[in-house]
Amino acid sequence: MEGKQLEDQRIFISDCEGPISKNDNAFELATNYIPDGDKFFTLISKYDDVIADIAKKPGYKAGDTLKLILPFLKAYGVTNEKIIEYSTKHVLLVPSAKETMQFIKKIMPSFIVSTSYEQYLSSLCKLIGFPYENVYCTRLDMDKFDMNEKEVDRLKELSVELSALPLIEIPEGADKVNDLSLRDQKTLGRLNEIFWIELLGMKSGRMLEEVCPVGGYEKAKAVQDIVKRLNNRLYNVFYVGDSITDVSPLQLVKGNGGLTVSFNGNKYAVREAEIAVLSSNTIVTMILAYTFKNYGKEATIKLTKEWSLPTIKKYVKHDLDFGYTPLKYLELAPEKLPQVELINDENRERLSKESSAFRKTVRGENIGRLG
Predict the structure, then answer these.
(1) C-alpha span between 275 and 293 (Å, rounded)
(2) Among residues 54, 162, 273, 274, which one has the fewest Cβ atoms lying within 10 Å of its Cβ?
(3) What are 191-250's pLDDT values in tens digits?
(4) Which domains occur in the chain, in start order?
């Protein structure tokens, strides 16, 4: 495809965790290897939301949680091999994700852009038969970083302190640090001390400097790279995301005429996307992507506005080789069609709440509430 103009060729790009799998691999690793790791990770994830979306710390991007937790994982003995072993055993797909991704990659160039570690994405690609060369994710070599026993002990002490700190609560509409409660501002100050003073003074501080999670603007850069690789244009991109790490690519694609979808997204994804999908099954992604590929953005928007089984049948034919027909699945329970709505100023707040709540039913309360 190099060197050839393909302005009529559509491109499918999706986040992984949420739209394809139910996992939050980093959360699960922290929970498995760090004492009280669920509380530990949830606090740092909230911190990530504040630093990226409210404080807007220079050089910091949504998803950098995945580098902040690394010194602690290392202190508790996590290696490359352990990440691979754990990830391979615990990949949990959204129903029909394998069939969906295999079909979409047959009809148009398809890519995964994920903040997750490469060890997890490699395992997932093998499971769903997706080409790993079409994946952008966080490169990580745990084994190249060293730390002495004194540092291990200190990191373990800090992990206990972090797990005991109160969870930061972000008020609705907050756009500056002073909008947080005094308690949470104090917690924020302590977290700043730990990560940007104490940890950077340790040998393991290299991990914070050298590991670059693919979140936020790095995801947007990945989208731009994909379009450049294919000698294409952003208006041909169909992008699926679900979290704060997708804000930048959603803004980029939407701002350049492409189509953006929030799949069981949280408030950050719904805020930026054009279509909201609430579904326990990825078949809806298959239908929307197929419509976009064959009929373009306007037709996909029209399908969304008129979302119903009869309208779907106008765009999706019974004789398509889906491996199995999505229409057959939909016809089994037409009254339970996945919720698909065009997002506008009037329904954005409602959809944000509904999608965030539904997200927890699909991925679980602990993972579903993460940014």
Answers:
(1) 16
(2) 54
(3) 999 999 999 999 989 999 999 999 999 999 999 999 999 999 999 999 999 999 999 999
(4) 11-22+94-116+125-137+215-368 (3.40.50.1000), 25-87+140-210 (1.10.3870.10)
